[in-house]
Design a protein that fits this description.
By secondary structure, the protein is of the alpha+beta class. It has one domain: Glutaredoxin (3-Layer(aba) Sandwich). Helices cover 40% and strands 18% of the residues. It has six helices and four strands. Helix 1 links the parallel strand 1 and strand 2. The two termini are 13 Å apart. The model has no long low-confidence stretch (mean pLDDT 92).
């Protein structure tokens, strides 16, 4: 089914998972928009939609360098939607990447991370 709105890939240009996702979309001849949230910030309405659809736990990358470099007390404060949202807005690199908005069909569909078999 062809989405009625464009695919948007959110991430950071130098991230290896984002690069793989961009290459995959190009190889599939899929039209898409790339939103680099390191340069253009994390769009708050979209972040709220991601949290609602996926849950904050799926979005906060606890294995990444950004998370590991946060002070333990900051890490401990991330326990719910509002605290995770605040962290992701202040430290966009903590967001697991890429986040994909596959466009609108009957409803919006989001995925996080690059997994070709799920795409």
């Amino acid at each position: 089914m062809t989405p009625s709105s464009p695919i948007t890939l959110y991430g950071i240009a130098n991230c290896s998972s984002v690069k793989k996702g961009l290459d995959w979309l190009r190889n599939q001849n899929r039209a898409f928009v790339f939103h680099d949230f390191k340069k253009a910030s994390v769009p708050e309405p979209e972040l709220d939609a991601w949290i609602s659809a996926l849950g904050w736990e799926a979005l906060v990358n606890r294995k990444g360098t950004t998370w590991r470099n946060l002070p333990p007390d900051v890490q401990a404060q991330v326990q719910n939607n509002p605290s995770a949202r605040a962290l992701m807005l202040s430290h966009p690199s903590v967001i697991k990447r890429p986040v994909i908005d596959w466009g609108t069909t009957s409803k919006k569909r989001f995925t996080v991370g690059f997994t070709p078999e799920n795409w």
